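To: structure subgroup
Subject: Chain for Friday's discussion

All,

I'm putting the inputs and outputs inline so they're searchable in the archive.
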Amino acid sequence: MATEIPVAVEEVRGRVSVRLPGGFKGVGLLLDGAPAPAGEARLTYTLPRVDGGVAHARLNAEALGMKFTLVVDGRSYPVGVELPGWLIVFVGMPLLLLFIGGALGGLCGGIGAAVNQGLVQRDWPVAWKALACLGVAAVSGGAWLALVSAFHIVVGR
């Protein structure tokens, strides 16, 4: 469910795209569809330049990992979908289960938040994204309730 967004970087030889996080895949830089060679630090990459040299690239995360900026040799390229702040709150809403339901709530909420993060990167209207996030939060809560009920039946308490 991860989304790939092409980025037009003229000084780099090959097709550059950014894989946005979604589901259980993290962010990454792709060169011609394959993972780009990693640099020395996390989220840094070395890319072949058109002139035969090496370009140094870095991915910077913004808005809790919902929007990224690709910086290639000091030049910035915004990547990702511009999200309203309130929608970012909707993405993390399933994580409230951590405070209500302990470890099982954290598990269900973490899965729900990961799914939401992938959903908001899709090319949908903002209203659909909000409804999808609320639906995932409801399903996460239902899954937590089902797990807790099953646990009580099995344990007998």
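Points worth raising on Friday:
The chain has a mean pLDDT of 86.
The two ends are 39 Å apart (CA to CA).

D.
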